[in-house]
Amino acid sequence: MIKLFDIGLKFNGMAIDKAVKVFDKLLALDGEDLLAYQVQRRQDIFGYHAQYNPFYAKFLAHHGFWETGIIDWKKIPVMRKSDLQGDLQLRIATPYQNKKVFRNNTSGSNGTPFHFAKDLWCHALTWASYKYRFGQHGIDFNSSLQARFYGIPLKGLKYYKERLKDLVSTRVRFPVFNLNNETCAGFLQQFRKQKFVYLNGYTSSLVLFAKYCIAQGVVLKDVCPSLAACFTTSEVCDDIDRHIMETGFGIKMINEYGSAELDLLAVEDSEGRWVLNEETVYIEIVDEYGMAVPDGTAGRILVTGLYNQAFPMIRYELGDIGIIAPGERVRGRRILKSLEGRTNDVALLPSGRKVPGLTFYYVTKSLLEKGSTIREFVIRQEEPELFVLEYVADAAINEENKKQIQQLMDVYLEPGLQLSFEKVESINRTRVGKLRQFQSNIKLNVISTEVGN
Asked: Residue 145 — pLDDT band, cuts 50, 70, 90?
Protein backbone atom coordinates (compact mmCIF):
# COMPACT_ATOMS: atom_id res chain seq x y z
CA MET A 1 0.00 0.00 0.00
CA ILE A 2 1.28 3.46 -0.91
CA LYS A 3 1.38 5.53 2.28
CA LEU A 4 0.40 8.79 0.63
CA PHE A 5 -0.20 10.59 3.92
CA ASP A 6 3.25 9.75 5.30
CA ILE A 7 4.84 10.58 1.94
CA GLY A 8 3.21 14.02 2.08
CA LEU A 9 4.64 14.67 5.55
CA LYS A 10 8.12 13.59 4.46
CA PHE A 11 7.90 15.75 1.34
CA ASN A 12 7.29 18.74 3.63
CA GLY A 13 10.38 17.95 5.70
CA MET A 14 8.85 16.02 8.59
CA ALA A 15 10.64 12.89 9.81
CA ILE A 16 7.41 11.06 10.63
CA ASP A 17 8.96 7.58 10.95
CA LYS A 18 11.46 8.80 13.55
CA ALA A 19 8.74 10.84 15.29
CA VAL A 20 6.52 7.76 15.66
CA LYS A 21 9.40 5.81 17.26
CA VAL A 22 10.17 8.64 19.68
CA PHE A 23 6.49 9.07 20.50
CA ASP A 24 6.19 5.34 21.28
CA LYS A 25 8.97 5.73 23.84
CA LEU A 26 7.15 8.68 25.41
CA LEU A 27 4.00 6.57 25.68
CA ALA A 28 5.93 4.02 27.73
CA LEU A 29 6.69 6.60 30.45
CA ASP A 30 4.62 6.32 33.61
CA GLY A 31 4.58 7.44 37.23
CA GLU A 32 7.65 9.31 38.44
CA ASP A 33 9.38 8.88 35.07
CA LEU A 34 6.55 10.68 33.29
CA LEU A 35 6.52 13.51 35.83
CA ALA A 36 10.31 13.94 35.66
CA TYR A 37 10.16 14.01 31.85
CA GLN A 38 7.51 16.73 31.83
CA VAL A 39 9.35 18.89 34.37
CA GLN A 40 12.60 18.62 32.40
CA ARG A 41 10.98 19.27 29.00
CA ARG A 42 9.02 22.30 30.16
CA GLN A 43 12.12 23.84 31.75
CA ASP A 44 14.16 23.11 28.63
CA ILE A 45 11.65 24.77 26.29
CA PHE A 46 11.33 27.77 28.60
CA GLY A 47 15.10 28.16 28.83
CA TYR A 48 15.45 27.87 25.05
CA HIS A 49 13.02 30.67 24.27
CA ALA A 50 14.25 32.85 27.13
CA GLN A 51 17.73 32.63 25.60
CA TYR A 52 17.10 32.46 21.83
CA ASN A 53 13.80 34.25 21.28
CA PRO A 54 14.12 38.07 21.61
CA PHE A 55 10.35 38.49 21.54
CA TYR A 56 9.86 36.09 24.45
CA ALA A 57 12.73 37.62 26.41
CA LYS A 58 11.06 41.03 26.08
CA PHE A 59 7.74 39.50 27.10
CA LEU A 60 9.33 38.13 30.28
CA ALA A 61 11.04 41.44 31.01
CA HIS A 62 7.78 43.32 30.51
CA HIS A 63 6.20 41.12 33.17
CA GLY A 64 9.12 41.50 35.56
CA PHE A 65 10.48 38.01 35.11
CA TRP A 66 14.29 37.92 34.77
CA GLU A 67 15.45 34.50 35.89
CA THR A 68 16.59 32.18 33.04
CA GLY A 69 18.23 29.37 35.03
CA ILE A 70 16.40 27.16 37.52
CA ILE A 71 12.86 28.47 37.47
CA ASP A 72 9.79 28.69 39.64
CA TRP A 73 7.31 27.52 37.04
CA LYS A 74 4.22 29.07 38.61
CA LYS A 75 5.81 32.54 38.40
CA ILE A 76 6.28 32.41 34.63
CA PRO A 77 3.79 34.88 33.14
CA VAL A 78 0.75 33.49 31.35
CA MET A 79 0.62 34.10 27.61
CA ARG A 80 -2.60 34.90 25.77
CA LYS A 81 -3.44 34.84 22.11
CA SER A 82 -3.35 38.65 22.06
CA ASP A 83 0.31 38.51 23.21
CA LEU A 84 1.23 36.37 20.21
CA GLN A 85 -0.83 38.12 17.55
CA GLY A 86 1.18 40.37 15.28
CA ASP A 87 4.15 40.00 12.96
CA LEU A 88 4.88 36.25 13.02
CA GLN A 89 8.48 36.64 11.86
CA LEU A 90 9.29 38.79 14.90
CA ARG A 91 8.01 36.06 17.22
CA ILE A 92 10.05 33.19 15.76
CA ALA A 93 13.20 32.19 17.68
CA THR A 94 16.46 33.46 16.16
CA PRO A 95 17.86 30.02 15.15
CA TYR A 96 14.70 29.42 13.05
CA GLN A 97 14.50 32.81 11.36
CA ASN A 98 16.02 31.44 8.17
CA LYS A 99 14.92 27.82 8.48
CA LYS A 100 11.89 26.16 7.01
CA VAL A 101 9.13 25.97 9.59
CA PHE A 102 5.46 25.01 9.47
CA ARG A 103 3.33 28.16 9.36
CA ASN A 104 -0.41 28.29 9.78
CA ASN A 105 -3.19 30.41 11.21
CA THR A 106 -6.49 30.02 13.02
CA SER A 107 -9.59 32.13 12.60
CA GLY A 108 -9.11 33.70 16.02
CA SER A 109 -11.90 33.75 18.61
CA ASN A 110 -12.01 37.56 18.51
CA GLY A 111 -12.22 37.70 14.73
CA THR A 112 -8.51 38.51 14.30
CA PRO A 113 -6.51 35.72 12.60
CA PHE A 114 -3.82 34.19 14.77
CA HIS A 115 -0.63 33.22 12.92
CA PHE A 116 1.73 30.69 14.47
CA ALA A 117 4.72 28.50 13.57
CA LYS A 118 6.12 25.11 14.52
CA ASP A 119 9.58 23.74 13.86
CA LEU A 120 9.39 20.65 11.67
CA TRP A 121 10.42 18.19 14.39
CA CYS A 122 7.71 19.52 16.70
CA HIS A 123 5.16 19.24 13.89
CA ALA A 124 6.25 15.68 13.12
CA LEU A 125 5.67 14.75 16.77
CA THR A 126 2.25 16.41 16.56
CA TRP A 127 1.35 14.11 13.68
CA ALA A 128 2.72 11.12 15.56
CA SER A 129 0.35 12.09 18.38
CA TYR A 130 -2.59 12.31 15.97
CA LYS A 131 -1.75 8.95 14.37
CA TYR A 132 -1.61 7.25 17.77
CA ARG A 133 -4.82 8.77 19.16
CA PHE A 134 -6.91 8.14 16.06
CA GLY A 135 -5.23 4.74 15.67
CA GLN A 136 -6.66 3.69 19.04
CA HIS A 137 -10.04 3.75 17.31
CA GLY A 138 -8.90 1.83 14.23
CA ILE A 139 -8.15 4.85 12.01
CA ASP A 140 -5.16 4.77 9.66
CA PHE A 141 -4.48 8.15 8.02
CA ASN A 142 -2.87 6.39 5.06
CA SER A 143 -5.87 4.23 4.20
CA SER A 144 -9.03 5.20 6.14
CA LEU A 145 -11.22 7.49 4.04
CA GLN A 146 -12.44 10.48 6.04
CA ALA A 147 -15.67 12.43 5.51
CA ARG A 148 -14.51 15.88 6.62
CA PHE A 149 -17.25 18.27 7.78
CA TYR A 150 -15.27 21.51 7.85
CA GLY A 151 -15.21 24.87 6.17
CA ILE A 152 -13.00 25.64 3.18
CA PRO A 153 -11.85 28.83 1.41
CA LEU A 154 -14.33 29.42 -1.39
CA LYS A 155 -11.83 30.45 -4.05
CA GLY A 156 -8.22 31.26 -4.88
CA LEU A 157 -4.95 29.52 -4.04
CA LYS A 158 -6.06 28.61 -0.50
CA TYR A 159 -9.01 26.66 -1.92
CA TYR A 160 -6.77 24.54 -4.14
CA LYS A 161 -4.23 24.03 -1.34
CA GLU A 162 -6.99 22.61 0.89
CA ARG A 163 -8.20 20.34 -1.90
CA LEU A 164 -4.65 19.04 -2.41
CA LYS A 165 -4.29 18.43 1.33
CA ASP A 166 -7.58 16.53 1.25
CA LEU A 167 -6.29 14.30 -1.54
CA VAL A 168 -3.00 13.54 0.22
CA SER A 169 -4.77 13.03 3.55
CA THR A 170 -7.29 10.48 2.21
CA ARG A 171 -10.33 12.62 2.91
CA VAL A 172 -13.35 14.08 1.15
CA ARG A 173 -14.48 17.57 2.09
CA PHE A 174 -18.12 18.27 3.00
CA PRO A 175 -18.39 22.11 3.18
CA VAL A 176 -20.58 23.18 6.09
CA PHE A 177 -21.59 26.73 5.24
CA ASN A 178 -25.11 25.91 4.03
CA LEU A 179 -26.46 22.64 5.39
CA ASN A 180 -30.01 22.83 4.05
CA ASN A 181 -32.00 19.74 3.06
CA GLU A 182 -30.79 19.87 -0.55
CA THR A 183 -27.15 19.98 0.55
CA CYS A 184 -27.63 17.13 3.03
CA ALA A 185 -29.35 15.05 0.35
CA GLY A 186 -26.25 15.47 -1.82
CA PHE A 187 -24.04 14.46 1.08
CA LEU A 188 -26.08 11.32 1.64
CA GLN A 189 -25.58 10.32 -1.99
CA GLN A 190 -21.81 10.56 -1.54
CA PHE A 191 -22.00 8.11 1.34
CA ARG A 192 -23.84 5.69 -0.90
CA LYS A 193 -21.00 5.84 -3.44
CA GLN A 194 -17.79 5.90 -1.36
CA LYS A 195 -16.40 3.68 1.39
CA PHE A 196 -15.90 6.19 4.18
CA VAL A 197 -14.39 4.84 7.40
CA TYR A 198 -14.98 7.82 9.69
CA LEU A 199 -16.49 11.28 9.95
CA ASN A 200 -14.56 14.20 11.41
CA GLY A 201 -15.77 17.75 11.86
CA TYR A 202 -17.56 20.48 13.75
CA THR A 203 -20.15 19.21 16.21
CA SER A 204 -22.95 21.51 15.04
CA SER A 205 -22.57 20.48 11.39
CA LEU A 206 -22.44 16.77 12.14
CA VAL A 207 -25.51 17.08 14.37
CA LEU A 208 -27.38 18.84 11.58
CA PHE A 209 -26.52 16.08 9.10
CA ALA A 210 -27.49 13.41 11.66
CA LYS A 211 -30.85 15.13 12.13
CA TYR A 212 -31.38 15.02 8.37
CA CYS A 213 -30.65 11.27 8.34
CA ILE A 214 -33.11 10.71 11.18
CA ALA A 215 -35.79 12.76 9.41
CA GLN A 216 -35.29 10.63 6.29
CA GLY A 217 -35.56 7.42 8.30
CA VAL A 218 -31.98 6.55 7.36
CA VAL A 219 -29.11 5.24 9.47
CA LEU A 220 -25.86 6.31 7.81
CA LYS A 221 -24.09 3.06 8.72
CA ASP A 222 -26.71 1.15 6.70
CA VAL A 223 -26.07 3.39 3.69
CA CYS A 224 -22.28 3.19 4.10
CA PRO A 225 -21.39 -0.09 5.89
CA SER A 226 -17.65 0.76 6.00
CA LEU A 227 -18.29 3.56 8.53
CA ALA A 228 -16.77 2.87 11.94
CA ALA A 229 -16.52 6.10 13.95
CA CYS A 230 -17.34 9.78 14.20
CA PHE A 231 -14.94 12.35 15.69
CA THR A 232 -16.22 15.77 16.77
CA THR A 233 -14.01 18.77 17.33
CA SER A 234 -13.88 22.57 17.87
CA GLU A 235 -17.36 22.91 19.39
CA VAL A 236 -18.97 21.60 22.57
CA CYS A 237 -20.57 18.17 22.22
CA ASP A 238 -23.08 17.31 24.93
CA ASP A 239 -25.08 14.16 25.65
CA ILE A 240 -27.97 15.32 23.47
CA ASP A 241 -25.66 15.90 20.51
CA ARG A 242 -24.04 12.52 21.08
CA HIS A 243 -27.40 10.75 21.15
CA ILE A 244 -28.51 12.47 17.91
CA MET A 245 -25.31 11.51 16.09
CA GLU A 246 -25.25 7.93 17.34
CA THR A 247 -28.90 7.56 16.32
CA GLY A 248 -28.49 9.12 12.88
CA PHE A 249 -25.12 7.60 12.05
CA GLY A 250 -25.30 4.23 13.83
CA ILE A 251 -21.62 4.36 14.87
CA LYS A 252 -19.60 5.24 17.97
CA MET A 253 -18.96 8.89 18.80
CA ILE A 254 -15.51 10.10 19.89
CA ASN A 255 -15.03 13.60 21.23
CA GLU A 256 -11.65 15.26 20.83
CA TYR A 257 -10.30 18.43 22.39
CA GLY A 258 -7.41 20.13 20.67
CA SER A 259 -5.75 23.31 19.54
CA ALA A 260 -4.44 23.85 16.02
CA GLU A 261 -1.47 25.83 17.31
CA LEU A 262 -0.51 23.02 19.73
CA ASP A 263 -1.79 19.44 19.37
CA LEU A 264 -4.64 17.17 20.38
CA LEU A 265 -4.99 17.80 24.09
CA ALA A 266 -7.47 15.06 24.99
CA VAL A 267 -9.31 12.36 23.07
CA GLU A 268 -11.91 9.96 24.40
CA ASP A 269 -10.70 6.40 24.73
CA SER A 270 -12.80 3.27 24.19
CA GLU A 271 -14.41 3.79 27.61
CA GLY A 272 -15.31 7.42 26.96
CA ARG A 273 -12.58 8.94 29.15
CA TRP A 274 -10.83 12.10 27.93
CA VAL A 275 -7.24 10.98 28.38
CA LEU A 276 -4.89 13.96 28.40
CA ASN A 277 -1.92 14.24 26.07
CA GLU A 278 1.01 14.15 28.51
CA GLU A 279 3.62 13.44 25.81
CA THR A 280 3.96 16.57 23.67
CA VAL A 281 2.27 19.22 25.84
CA TYR A 282 2.10 20.16 29.51
CA ILE A 283 -1.41 21.04 30.71
CA GLU A 284 -2.28 23.07 33.82
CA ILE A 285 -5.58 24.08 35.40
CA VAL A 286 -5.12 27.35 37.26
CA ASP A 287 -7.10 30.01 39.10
CA GLU A 288 -7.46 33.68 38.20
CA TYR A 289 -3.94 34.35 39.53
CA GLY A 290 -2.25 31.61 37.49
CA MET A 291 -1.87 29.26 40.48
CA ALA A 292 -2.68 25.55 40.19
CA VAL A 293 -6.09 24.45 41.49
CA PRO A 294 -6.78 21.01 43.02
CA ASP A 295 -8.01 18.26 40.71
CA GLY A 296 -11.80 18.33 40.64
CA THR A 297 -11.86 22.15 40.65
CA ALA A 298 -12.73 24.24 37.59
CA GLY A 299 -10.04 26.55 36.33
CA ARG A 300 -8.41 28.16 33.30
CA ILE A 301 -6.58 25.78 30.98
CA LEU A 302 -2.92 26.62 30.27
CA VAL A 303 -0.85 24.61 27.80
CA THR A 304 2.88 24.53 27.13
CA GLY A 305 4.18 23.04 23.90
CA LEU A 306 7.09 20.88 25.04
CA TYR A 307 8.88 20.73 21.69
CA ASN A 308 8.19 23.88 19.70
CA GLN A 309 11.51 25.70 19.48
CA ALA A 310 10.32 27.97 16.67
CA PHE A 311 7.46 29.70 18.50
CA PRO A 312 6.95 30.28 22.27
CA MET A 313 3.80 28.46 23.41
CA ILE A 314 4.59 28.58 27.14
CA ARG A 315 1.84 28.70 29.77
CA TYR A 316 -0.46 29.66 26.92
CA GLU A 317 -4.08 30.32 27.90
CA LEU A 318 -6.49 28.70 25.48
CA GLY A 319 -9.51 30.58 26.79
CA ASP A 320 -11.20 27.41 28.05
CA ILE A 321 -12.30 26.38 31.54
CA GLY A 322 -11.86 22.73 32.49
CA ILE A 323 -11.72 20.22 35.32
CA ILE A 324 -9.22 17.38 35.88
CA ALA A 325 -10.77 14.21 37.30
CA PRO A 326 -9.42 13.68 40.86
CA GLY A 327 -7.66 10.38 41.49
CA GLU A 328 -8.16 8.97 37.97
CA ARG A 329 -5.41 8.05 35.55
CA VAL A 330 -4.95 5.88 32.47
CA ARG A 331 -1.38 4.63 32.01
CA GLY A 332 -0.31 7.49 34.28
CA ARG A 333 -2.15 10.06 32.17
CA ARG A 334 -4.67 12.39 33.81
CA ILE A 335 -8.31 12.51 32.74
CA LEU A 336 -10.12 15.67 31.62
CA LYS A 337 -13.41 15.38 33.49
CA SER A 338 -15.18 18.19 31.66
CA LEU A 339 -14.94 21.43 29.73
CA GLU A 340 -16.99 24.13 31.38
CA GLY A 341 -16.94 26.55 28.44
CA ARG A 342 -14.80 29.45 27.34
CA THR A 343 -13.65 32.22 29.64
CA ASN A 344 -15.09 34.82 27.26
CA ASP A 345 -18.44 33.03 26.84
CA VAL A 346 -19.87 34.22 30.13
CA ALA A 347 -23.37 35.52 30.82
CA LEU A 348 -23.40 38.47 33.23
CA LEU A 349 -26.82 38.45 34.93
CA PRO A 350 -28.59 41.49 36.46
CA SER A 351 -27.85 40.22 39.98
CA GLY A 352 -24.13 40.37 39.22
CA ARG A 353 -23.88 36.61 38.99
CA LYS A 354 -21.59 35.31 36.24
CA VAL A 355 -22.44 31.96 34.63
CA PRO A 356 -21.06 30.12 31.59
CA GLY A 357 -23.21 30.99 28.57
CA LEU A 358 -23.63 27.31 27.86
CA THR A 359 -25.62 26.96 31.08
CA PHE A 360 -28.40 28.93 29.44
CA TYR A 361 -27.90 27.03 26.21
CA TYR A 362 -28.27 23.63 27.88
CA VAL A 363 -31.41 24.68 29.76
CA THR A 364 -32.99 25.70 26.47
CA LYS A 365 -31.67 22.85 24.36
CA SER A 366 -32.82 20.03 26.61
CA LEU A 367 -36.42 21.13 26.14
CA LEU A 368 -36.34 22.15 22.49
CA GLU A 369 -34.77 18.90 21.32
CA LYS A 370 -37.74 16.88 22.61
CA GLY A 371 -39.78 16.13 19.53
CA SER A 372 -39.28 19.56 17.93
CA THR A 373 -38.45 20.37 14.33
CA ILE A 374 -35.71 22.79 15.32
CA ARG A 375 -32.56 22.05 13.34
CA GLU A 376 -30.13 24.36 15.14
CA PHE A 377 -30.06 27.45 17.32
CA VAL A 378 -27.78 29.90 19.11
CA ILE A 379 -28.14 32.18 22.13
CA ARG A 380 -27.20 35.88 22.21
CA GLN A 381 -27.16 38.10 25.27
CA GLU A 382 -28.08 41.64 24.24
CA GLU A 383 -28.66 43.15 27.71
CA PRO A 384 -28.03 41.82 31.24
CA GLU A 385 -31.66 40.69 31.42
CA LEU A 386 -32.33 40.09 27.70
CA PHE A 387 -31.40 36.97 25.72
CA VAL A 388 -32.27 36.18 22.10
CA LEU A 389 -32.77 32.62 20.90
CA GLU A 390 -32.14 32.51 17.15
CA TYR A 391 -33.28 29.27 15.56
CA VAL A 392 -33.80 27.44 12.27
CA ALA A 393 -36.93 25.29 12.09
CA ASP A 394 -39.80 24.26 9.88
CA ALA A 395 -42.29 25.86 12.25
CA ALA A 396 -42.21 28.53 14.94
CA ILE A 397 -41.75 27.57 18.60
CA ASN A 398 -45.15 27.31 20.26
CA GLU A 399 -46.23 29.31 23.28
CA GLU A 400 -46.20 26.30 25.59
CA ASN A 401 -42.50 25.65 24.88
CA LYS A 402 -41.71 29.33 25.39
CA LYS A 403 -43.42 29.24 28.77
CA GLN A 404 -41.55 26.11 29.83
CA ILE A 405 -38.20 27.63 28.86
CA GLN A 406 -39.00 30.74 30.88
CA GLN A 407 -39.77 28.59 33.93
CA LEU A 408 -36.46 26.72 33.57
CA MET A 409 -34.60 30.02 33.33
CA ASP A 410 -36.18 31.15 36.61
CA VAL A 411 -35.00 27.95 38.32
CA TYR A 412 -31.50 27.44 36.89
CA LEU A 413 -30.40 31.05 36.26
CA GLU A 414 -32.47 33.65 38.09
CA PRO A 415 -36.00 35.08 37.94
CA GLY A 416 -36.78 38.10 35.78
CA LEU A 417 -34.73 37.23 32.68
CA GLN A 418 -36.36 37.89 29.32
CA LEU A 419 -36.09 35.65 26.28
CA SER A 420 -36.88 36.72 22.73
CA PHE A 421 -37.32 34.16 19.94
CA GLU A 422 -36.22 34.80 16.35
CA LYS A 423 -36.94 32.24 13.62
CA VAL A 424 -34.39 32.59 10.78
CA GLU A 425 -33.61 30.82 7.52
CA SER A 426 -29.97 30.15 8.45
CA ILE A 427 -27.50 30.94 11.21
CA ASN A 428 -24.25 32.72 10.48
CA ARG A 429 -21.03 30.81 11.07
CA THR A 430 -17.45 32.00 11.30
CA ARG A 431 -15.47 32.24 8.09
CA VAL A 432 -14.14 28.69 8.66
CA GLY A 433 -17.57 27.25 9.33
CA LYS A 434 -17.71 27.07 13.14
CA LEU A 435 -20.91 27.90 15.01
CA ARG A 436 -20.64 30.10 18.09
CA GLN A 437 -23.43 28.66 20.23
CA PHE A 438 -23.42 31.46 22.79
CA GLN A 439 -22.44 35.09 22.32
CA SER A 440 -22.58 37.97 24.75
CA ASN A 441 -22.86 41.42 23.20
CA ILE A 442 -22.55 43.31 26.48
CA LYS A 443 -19.51 44.41 28.44
CA LEU A 444 -17.29 41.79 26.83
CA ASN A 445 -14.13 43.44 28.09
CA VAL A 446 -15.41 43.57 31.67
CA ILE A 447 -16.51 39.96 31.66
CA SER A 448 -13.24 38.75 30.17
CA THR A 449 -11.20 40.68 32.74
CA GLU A 450 -13.18 39.50 35.73
CA VAL A 451 -13.28 35.84 34.76
CA GLY A 452 -10.04 35.30 32.92
CA ASN A 453 -7.36 37.50 34.48
From this structure: very high
